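Supplementary Methods, section 5.1.

A reviewer requested that the exact input to the structure prediction be made available. We therefore reproduce it here, unchanged from the version used in the analyses.
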Amino acid sequence: MNNIHTSTHVSTYFNEALVDRIDTQKYLKSNGKIKKVVSDPDNHYTAAIDDSGNITVIVHKLNRFVSIKPSSPATHLVFIRNGNLLVAQQNGHISQYLASNGKLTSVIKHHNSKLLALEYNPVTKQILTIANDQCTLWDAQSFNKIKTLFAKASYFATGSLTPNGQSLITSFQDGNVYVWNLNNFEVTAKSEVEENMKNQKISVSADSSRFVIGGSTAYLYYCDISHSPLCISSFALPSGSTSVKKIKFTHGNYLGIITDNQVFYAIDSSTNQIALEFRLPKNKGITDFDINPNNLEILIVSGNGEIFKYDLQKLFIMEMNQQQRLLERGIESSLVYNVLKPGNQNHSLKFESHVDFVSHGKENVIINGESKLVNDPDDLMKANTQRETNIIQLCTFPKHTLEKMFKSALINVNSLPNMSVHKLRQFLQKHKVYPDKHRAFIYKQLLELPLNVDNFATLVQKGLYPSFKDLYRKYPISDSKLYQKMQTILSCLANFCDLFGESDQFIQIAFPFVKLFGQEELLAFEIVLCFAHQILQNYFVDFPHPPLDLLQNIDEIIKYNDPILHQHLKQHNFKFVDYIWPFLSGFFTSALDKESWLQLIDYLITYNDTPELFMFITAAFIIYFKHPLMKLKSKDELEIFISRQNPVSVNHIIESGFSLLKRTPIDKIFVKFSKILPLSKTSYNQFTNYNVFNVAHSRLTRQQETEAEAKLEESKHKIRQMQSLTDQILSVEQRYKEKQENLIRSEQIRREEVIYNAEQKLSRQMKLEESIKQTRLQQLNKIQTLTRANLQAQEELRQKELDLLEAELQYQQQADGQQMQNRKEEIQILEMEAQAAARLRQVMELREKEDRQRMVRMDMDIHRQQEEDRDNALIQQWRVEDTEMRLRRETLKQKKLQDLYKYEEENEKKLIEAKMLETEILKEQQMRDIERERKLRQIAEQELDQNERYAEYVKQLEQEQLKTQIHKLQETLNHHRQKALNFSQARLNQAEEEKNRLLNEIQIHKNMLSAKQKTLQTGEIESQIAQKRREAEQSIIEHEKKLQSILLDIENEKRLMYELQSQILQREKDIKEQEGFYDVLKENEQRAINENRYQTALQQQRFEEDLNRQTMQKSYQQQQRLQEQMQLREQQLIQETDQMRETIQQENMKRLEEAVNNNTLLRNTNSNNQSQDYSPANNFQRNHYKMPSEINEEEGEQDEEQ
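The structure derived from this sequence is encoded token-by-token as follows.
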């Protein structure tokens, strides 16, 4: 039955339990799809196989992927130690890659076909690989092969190692399942599942207590490993599923499966309850999954190749909550919880060998019909209890079963030609051996076997003989069926005679007969018994020692027929026990091959009336090897000769045996043989030719050895348990140590990441500072370049002015020279111009004044130029200082802007967080609204549906009940009416009969009675008739009363129906009121939601306004502060500049006034000197025709003097 809330799985779980979604398209180079995925237990890597067989490894730590293209398409993946990835390829090779870089490290080329399973056990560090023909166990550290199991009767289907590393589970294609002990590779349990089940999948629980098998069948097969014998129970898959695509235990007892309808189910294997049913959204389908047991995350591969990661624990919790909510609504638990239905499969044990073993130096044992190889012989005691149980079950057959089993042994002699013993001997002499297909019939005829089924059934029912419980130790047999038949026949022989159960030689003698005639156990039993009675009647006389009389008689025959050989043997101290008993102890089974041994037995059975023949054949066998025996000098050489199988001609030996029998005198035969055959048809003849005391002593000794071995095995079992417990403790400690190392390693990795991030951050910061420094240096270089350009331009201007001045000076010098020449020329006429001297003096004074003014102007220009240069240099210095200040202000401004940006970023971040918080709140509120509306709608719909269904159901029920009741009432009424009518009719008939009878009587006695008596008699008859009529009417009235009561009941039921209808109407009214109440609740809730939204939006708006206002205020204040500082600094600079200019102007004016005063004084002095010492012409020549530099020097000297 499907879960009623299945439709809510996808949306709810997809939104809330999804951890990550891996887009595989960016990892795949082609347009392929992912078909298989596997996760690293440490959650460092995720590996996937696409449909082309290529591998993609996703490295989560570095957020990158590695592509691997193997030589052959990959089929299986598994992570082993230290991030190594093991890959099984389609050609059977196994490759190991480094998951971090995809480097190939090693390749195992062992299998020749595609692997069916690849598994790694972290506890034992072993790798399991399974192909069709073999199953191999590897050491994961050295990749050395530990053990290989080869398939025999059927091919392997799948297999798995138990998590504790103690057992191996293998499944074959014919349905057989085996559980192996990995300590000694014994089969500890066995059972079977559905035969020829394809695509078998197997998974073992984490506690190694159970395993589950699934495949192309509609059933899951559960098995508890701890129970013995192994019992498998089947359970049907969920509805709509016909096969299992993958199966794996998730955690604890929870089993995860993917069915053919591409749905993931999590099943509690202890209760068979479906704990989780999961589908991907948009009906994508699930093709594969893998579960990380450390963090309980499940990787799911969709049908289109996408990989989804879900929190499995959250899925379980949500499913439980959903189920609890459904239960709280009053829904029945049978509709909420889905449980797997038990299957109707019946599984019986089979005893067939499916596996051959490859091993050296190990003993072969049989456990559960399987051949086992073990190192320690003491481990063979483990299967005693199981072996005894199987043999007891096998041997306790009822009589009719035995008759059916051995019906084929009852050969119809009439259907075969009548062959006498003489003809058989002639046939044997001609062909030397009997045909295999007629040997059973011939032996039966020669030995005259009774085929006593009753006696044999009695021996079988006695069960397994104690000494044959561990027969596999003494006589290992690989074929399980032959081994069981051997145990059965030997147990019957031992139950018949204790000697046969205590003699080891008898087992070797009986084995070939069991192998030949094992299909007909009764025939084999009686042939062995006849052989023991007739041929071996003196074989066990000295048991448990060799039969000395028999051996001595054979030695005497050898001495008589070949004294040279006998003398050589005695000369080298070879006793007859040394060279006769080794061949005779197993009755030549180790010395002859199968054909030769059968030929020998054919002769012995044919000539069973001459039982001493085997002594002469034994003597002939020894004499046959005369030449090699004559070369032997020591017992070691003799043992080597006996141990190897020497080539022999049985025909020659048999002919020699008959020849020795003929020519040996009777007095040389002192061992007496008697004719015992044929066996009795009522009860078998007792075998008494042995020492009973020795047999009893041997049995007692064997029991003591068995008890000692049992005690030793028990002590070893305890030691193994202690060792196992110690190993578990060590493994726990190792796991704890590895866990601590992993934690330390992860902490180290985390610290390295933190240091790496800090270094990266510091590097980025240093690069940023370096770029800022470079920018500032570039700006300073630009300023210096501009300053140099300005200075160079000023220097060029100054150089131009100097050039102009030099040119002017040269011109002036030329003019002065010319004037001097003119003066010389004019000196002569100066006297002639006396009249014009005053005027000329005035003109010269005027010119001198102008020259002085020009010179003053020039001086002032030079001084002004110097002052301007100094001012320019000072201004340039101020500009540099202003530039530095501006740079400082820019730096401070940038710092302030960075702080502002950081503050704005923080504000934006807070604003974004507030928006995200608001979005999340709105989203959660919307989700709550949607969920609440959906729940209310579901509740309303469910209640409406339930009410409608209930009303329809009640209506139908009432109609059916009404119809049924009316029908029953009608039938009852008709029945009662008919019954009443029948009864009334019967009573009327009786009354009529009575009346007729009375009338007849009246008529008879009419003549005898008087008229009065007639009258009286007539009155009595009428009164009786009236009485009977009254009784009939009374019964009719009673029936009518019953009918009335039935009608009243009908009326009451109608009234109840009307009341029920009124209750239904009232219920509908209540439902409508509830719907109205729910509508009011919805409106109130919607109103509250809108109000909350409005309040949230209002708070958000206020928060944004406050944030913007504060940000604007702070930025405005900072800008105002910066502007005020800049204005203040500019005002200070302007004031300082104005003050400096005023100071310079004042100093310049003072210097100009001083210069004017000095020039005035100098001019006055010069004029006085001229008037006293020189003439005006000379004064003019001395004062007006001097170089400007001389005039300046003179003025400077005069200034110094003053």
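The chain has 27 helices and 32 strands. These observations are discussed further in the main text.
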